[in-house]
Write a structure and sequence with these properties.
Elements: E1 4-11, E2 17-18, E3 23-32, E4 36-38, E5 40-59, E6 62-82, E7 95-97, E8 100-109, E9 118-120, E10 123-134, E11 139-141, E12 145-149, H1 155-162, H2 165-169, E13 172-182, E14 185-196, E15 200-201, E16 206-217, E17 224-234, E18 240-250, E19 257-267, E20 282-293, E21 298-307, E22 317-324, H3 326-329, E23 347-353, E24 362-367, H4 372-386, H5 392-404
Parallel strand pairs: 2-12, 15-21
Antiparallel strand pairs: 1-3, 3-8, 4-7, 5-6, 5-10, 9-10, 10-11, 10-12, 13-14, 14-16, 16-19, 17-18, 17-20, 19-24, 20-21, 22-23
GO biological process, one term: protein transport
Domain Arrestin C-terminal-like: 186-312
Family: Belongs to the arrestin family.
Length: 405
């Protein structure tokens, strides 16, 4: 509208992070270049989860793709900040807003049970507020203002109630091995092992890993990365994997080499906890993975972990703060099909650990004597050592003996 210079929704909380049951305080601010006639001012609050996915169905010789789109509404409220509504839902009043700035304050209490905010591929749990000014023949809307809902998650309490405390504190390990070659012609093998001392972490905490890579083959491998992966599942659909964070361990490993990392540190970034309470259509899990690239395959080892929001008892932390999810900021979810998209990174609790909580990383690079490459080099060397080197006289004598025979 020509008379409106700016119309926006302002929240008083600088972090714009709330918990279930909190009061959201803010205002609708409008700046006019000329007077306008309005009939009412309305504000909308909405909280919902939505997921969209495709399912392939086999019908004999044909395959049919079925699209699913589910939504859960947690609240969808509308309030009149100014004006009067008649029995038919129309506006009764009409007033002239003069040139300049005008503010319409609001206060809204959130419901007492809500899932944590989340933005994922073709999925979200999103909370928004939006304002609207209405006239006789026009409407002016603010942009949807997203805000974060945060909910603490402490799996230690769950496991203590179930009597399974030791399992979450026990080390967890994965080992994978692949033989190279075809049939009877084997050219060696490659292997990877990953071990974590525990399974529960909070954002800001260092994941301390022990990693071993062995390349007992003639092939040179590519880069090796440690990754934190988020596995998002909608109902019974196939999961979608998102790389939340990645750290390069090494550029490559030559044939016959073994790399070992003892106490390798990998910091958990701001990310959604492993449980979305109250949300029935989206589930989230995490794993730490080692991904090593070869020409025609990837060597992969992974262990499941749990992202919590409350550190272990006795852990010393300097402070915590709310920070935006890095994966959302990087646009990892911008290809969210036909779902409404917003450039918004939900904020989560992140802890700043004291310097004493960190360990030193030890890396070892070993040439394996029993590798195919090493054996081949030793065989060549032994052949050279056992060979006879003839001088010119020897050659002449040998040729004469051959002629006589």
């Amino acid at each position: 509208m020509l008379g409106v210079l700016n119309f926006e929704c302002i929240l008083d909380d600088p972090d714009q992070v709330y918990t279930a049951g909190d009061k959201i305080k803010g205002s609708l601010s409008i700046h006019l270049r000329s007077p306008i006639a309005i009939t009412g001012v309305t504000i909308y609050f909405k909280g919902a989860a939505r997921a969209k996915w495709c399912e392939l169905m086999d019908n004999g010789s044909r395959r049919t793709e079925i699209e699913h789109d589910k939504e859960e509404i947690y609240f969808d409220d509308r309030f009149c900040l100014w004006g009067k509504v008649d029995d038919k839902g129309g506006w009764e009043s009409l007033e002239i807003l003069e040139k300049g700035s005008h503010v319409f304050p609001f206060l809204y209490r959130l419901p007492h049970s809500l899932p944590c905010s989340f933005e994922g591929p073709d999925t979200f749990v999103r909370y928004t507020v939006q304002g609207k000014i209405s006239g006789r023949d026009y409407e002016v809307n603010t942009k949807e203002k997203p805000f974060s809902i945060f909910k603490d998650y402490d799996p230690h309490l769950e496991n203590s109630c179930e009597g399974d405390v030791d399992s979450v504190y026990s080390p967890i390990e994965d080992y994978t091995e692949k033989s190279l070659g075809n049939g009877c012609c084997q050219t060696g093998h490659v292997s990877c092992s990953l071990m974590l001392k525990k399974q529960i972490f909070v954002p800001g905490e260092n994941i301390i890993a022990t990693i071993t890579l062995q390349n007992i083959s003639f092939r040179k491998c590519g880069s090796c990365n440690m990754q934190l992966k988020q596995i998002v599942r909608c109902s019974d659909s196939c999961p979608v994997v998102v790389i939340v964070a990645s750290s390069k361990l090494c550029e490559s490993i030559r044939p016959g080499q073994s790399c070992h990392w003892q106490g390798y540190e990998f910091t958990v970034p701001p990310t959604c906890p492993s449980r979305l309470d109250m949300c029935k259509i989206i589930s989230i899990k995490y794993c730490v993975a080692i991904d090593t690239a070869f020409d025609d395959f990837n060597l992969y080892a992974a262990v499941p972990i749990v992202i919590a929001t409350i550190p272990e008892t006795g852990t010393e932390v300097a402070k915590w703060s709310y920070r935006g999810s890095q994966s959302s900021k990087k646009g990892a979810y911008q290809e969210a099909a036909e779902l409404p998209h917003t450039e918004f990174a939900p904020k989560y609790k992140v802890y700043d650990y004291l310097p004493g909580q960190t360990n030193r990383d030890t890396t070892m690079l070993i040439d394996l004597p029993h590798s195919p490459g090493q054996s081949k080099r030793q065989h060549r060397k032994s052949n050279l050592d056992n060979s006879v080197i003839c001088n010119d006289d020897d050659k002449e004598e040998t040729s004469l003996k051959a002629a006589k025979t």
